[in-house]
Predict the 3D structure of the following.
Amino acid sequence: MKKLRTGSLLFTFWLSLTSVIYSQESEERVSEGTLHELLGGIEERTSFHGFADIQFRFEDPSEGEERSFFTLGQLDFFPTAQLTDHISFLNETIVRAATGEQQIFSVERLIIKYAIRDSFNLALGRFHTALGYWNEAYHHGAWLQTTIDRPEIMTFNAILPIHSVGVELSGILDFPTFDLSYVANFANGRGITPAQVQIFSDANNDKAYAFKLSLRPKGLPGLALGPTIYYDVIPPDISTPPKFGETTELILGGHLVYLTKRFEFLAEYFNIHHDEEISSKTFDTNGFYIQTAYQKGKLKPYYRFDFVDIGKGDPFFSSFIDIKRHTVGLRYDVATFNALKLEYAWQDTDVTSANLILFQSAFAF
């Protein structure tokens, strides 16, 4: 009888176990089916692309030893999705080399956009701040831009607040003789260092405001020009003793761009004004670049002049130096989505001057 009871118990346990497993599998199948129905068709509305580059650099400074090295540029993953006719998603996530063998994984842009009409769009997330032309035109893929590097004033994690987290309004207004586009930002401000983008919170209650206009005459296609303004209150340094107190930041700038199938002209200027609380001093940093290029078949020779003059004694920019750089280069589009670039640059800084030779293979996929 004991064996019979034991067998019955084991059989009952087995039936219960298989019933639970079958129930779980059924629920999973239902969930998978429901998920498939919910996401049905989204594959057709989603695209995944990317950018990457590999570089070689040779540096010959006036003081110090020559050095040459290969380096991996940014590996840029670029998924987008058209969720509805009026709602879209964009993400830009990069992997880049840091120091030694370390690599940094970073979400550079994460945007949900509501395209209400041509004259009014609303976007939320992390985006490129409305600062002039280059910052919103070329993003992180080196293949997109003519040159190997961004202009000095537009360098990531440096002088200008390239990224912001918040709300963006944008649109294009149609007039009889010109189009006028605008971009406005309301976002978390800068952190206590120029490189800090405040993603999860804001160190103070003062938000950053940015506004940019771009006028495009209909009688001269390819021409765009307009002003930029950015306002923020930078939180005080938290070290002891503090390097600087609360600092009001006002950035004024402008862009002039002319692009045709063959000719390229880009010029931008920025003034960064700081009013620091502890010392009651003001500081002005100025930067600009001028770039021109001419496309002839697969070849595109170009030239750029970079200039940055850091406000003397500005504690917020204490790690930066003045720089002037002349760059001449040649871009060769060896294939539709692969460009080879060769550059020679001469730069002069507060510390030293140097001759630079750079090579890059940049591609999209």
